[in-house]
Amino acid sequence: MEKEVKKLQKQIEDLKKNDPFADPEHATDNAAVDTDVREQVGHDTIEAEIKALQRKLSDINLALQKMKKGKYGMCERCGLAIPVARLKLLPEARYDVDCEQKLRR
User: Where are the annotated dksA C4-type zinc-finger regions (predicted)?
Assistant: First the structure.
């Protein structure tokens, strides 16, 4: 999971660099309306991707903290063990499948 943390941090950093709004000249250029629209859509897309990556990063960091406390692999809702097969697919899982489905309803 620590490798995944570094990978996610790099992805976030790269996305921030590619954000059209990261260019200080963006605010002062007189781009055409269609260029402004494309830049806005690009910015919105990058922001959404960053938020998703930050959420995953946060879940992984929480899982790493749980490991240190000896509480990794326990469902936060019901307290039962999360099946190993689920943890192999989603190491940062906070809930077992039943609880996850109940929370999403």
Answer: 75-99
| pTM of full prediction above 0.70 | yes
Task: Write out the H or E segment, with its range, that includes residue 24.
Answer: none
Let me know whether 77 and 67 are in one domain: no
Tokens encoding 74: 């326990």
Helix extents (H) in the chain: 2-18, 33-69, 84-89, 97-104
Tell me the two tokens of residue 9: 């941090």
Within 8 A by CB and 6+ apart from 25, the residues are none
- Write out the residue range of the structural domain in which residue 31 sits: 1-72
Query: 33-89, pLDDT tens digit by residue?
Result: 556 677 888 889 999 999 999 999 999 999 999 999 999 999 999 999 999 999 999
